[in-house]
Amino acid sequence: MAEPVQTPHAFPTRIFSGIQPSGGLTLGNYLGALKRFAEKQDEGIETVYCLVDMHAITVWQDPVKLRQQTREAAAGFIASGVDPARSILFNQSQVTAHAELAWIFNCVARMGWMSRMTQFKDKAGKNSENVSLGLFAYPALMAADILAYKATHVPVGEDQKQHLELCRDIAAKFNNDFGVDFFPITEPVIEGAATRVMSLRDGTKKMSKSDPSDQSRINLTDDADMIAKKIKKAKTDSEPLPSDLEGLKDRPEARNLVNIYAALAGMSAEDVIREHAGAQFGSFKPALADLAVSVMGPITTEMNRLMQDTAEIDRILGEGAVRADAIARPIVDEVYDIVGMIRSRKG
Ligand code: AMP
Ligand code: TRP
Fold first, then answer.
1. Of 35, 206, 230, 285, catalytic
2. 189 — phi, psi (to 5°)?
3. pLDDT of the chain along its 347 residues, tens only?
4. CATH code at position 110
5. Domain range holding 37?
6. Are residues 61 and 103 in the same domain?
7. Going by C-beta distance under 8 Å and a sequence separation of 6 or more, which residues neighbour residue 188?
8. Are residues 86 and 156 in the same domain?
9. Which atom of ligand 2 is the closest one to the Cα of 55?
10. Which residues are near ligand 1 (CB < 6 Å)?
11. Same domain membership, residue 135 and residue 246
């Protein structure tokens, strides 16, 4: 029997993920990211979660609002089940290793790789001469976030897939350029029924905190009435639900509501369709609204409660930053060494 292939360097499983505090959190963030962050933690895996405030400022952020949104996002993580005692939860700018490693990666990544990033093209649009340099370099900072912890797995929504491929390319080029097996080739973890929650107004657009229409999304801060109202007003077609997923192929709005239902109920989309085959939206939407209110209501209540004590949130983030730094600092120090920087300063 052939010998099993030996990987030269086994990297212990560690999860890292981040969310930008650039606006309120949405149902998309909850189903695509937060809910799964809590599940990974509950599986007993080492989990490091970050509010990426340095990514947020790649587009203009009002300083007062940025602070508020960072605290609110931290409350959103905790209310969604991320336990700061079992996961490391902190904001990026408090751990300088991220910015330091990002610079090294700016010198590893190639202009051509960065120019192919669809999120940059979408965000810059026709205005590419006028956007910040940081917006272009954004994915190198994201790779630094992940690799400063040698994270092996990154749970994200579908929209982050290309950025994670770039992270793998950066890790592989660094390892290859310096002849080391230092960084893991990180695996994206894109799973579940709601890896891409769509806008409630347009089933071809992602639900996003930056959409100008508040009707397009469910915010983690929306109360029960608002959630129910938005779901009942969601755009749909006039057909009843089909009996299988194939029947939803060209019906993006209907497909989206089925996916949301599935993710909220912890069911597969197939099972939702089987259960609701032939239902009109007049009955499916109220059922979905009830389900959404029952899942999201307690999260909103807990978030509001946590927001009463912002000093406690700041304390949690500070403590998380100290724990994050203890992992990242030695890794980034080793990177400087590999790259050939003199490290002779005492203290
Ligand atoms: P962002 O809000 O862009 O910082 O995204 C934070 C996390 O939420 C990332 O893992 C995204 O992939 C995920 N996410 C954001 N919007 C959605 C969405 N509409 N559906 C699923 N996941 C999403
Ligand atoms: N770019 C991610 C987003 O907008 C946020 C992010 C920054 C991130 N750094 C990360 C996600 C590291 C995962 C891992 O959704």
1. 206
2. -120, 100
3. 455 555 556 899 999 999 999 989 999 999 999 999 999 999 999 999 999 999 999 999 999 999 999 999 999 999 999 999 999 999 999 999 999 999 999 999 999 999 999 999 999 998 889 999 999 999 999 999 999 999 999 999 999 999 999 999 999 999 999 999 999 999 999 998 899 999 999 999 999 998 999 999 999 999 999 999 999 999 999 999 999 999 999 999 999 999 999 999 999 999 999 999 999 999 999 999 999 999 999 999 999 999 999 999 999 999 999 999 999 999 999 999 999 999 999 97
4. 3.40.50.620
5. 14-189+309-339
6. yes
7. 153, 154, 156, 160, 161, 164, 165
8. yes
9. 7
10. 19-20, 28-29, 32-33, 156-157, 159-160, 194-197, 206-207, 209
11. no
Which residues fall within 8 angstroms of residue 113, CB to CB, at 6 or more apart? 166, 169
Domain presence at residue 73: yes
**Is 57 inside a domain boundary?**
yes
Query: Is 201 inside a domain boundary?
Result: no
Ligand 1 pocket: which of 19, 52, 259 to mutate (most atoms within 8 A of CB): 19
153 — phi, psi (to 5°)?
Answer: -140, 140
Query: Among this protein's residues, is 209 annotated catalytic?
Result: yes
Q: b vs e for 221-234, b when ≥16 Cβ sit within 10 Å of the residue's Cβ?
A: bbebeebbebbeeb
Q: How many domains does the chain have?
A: 2
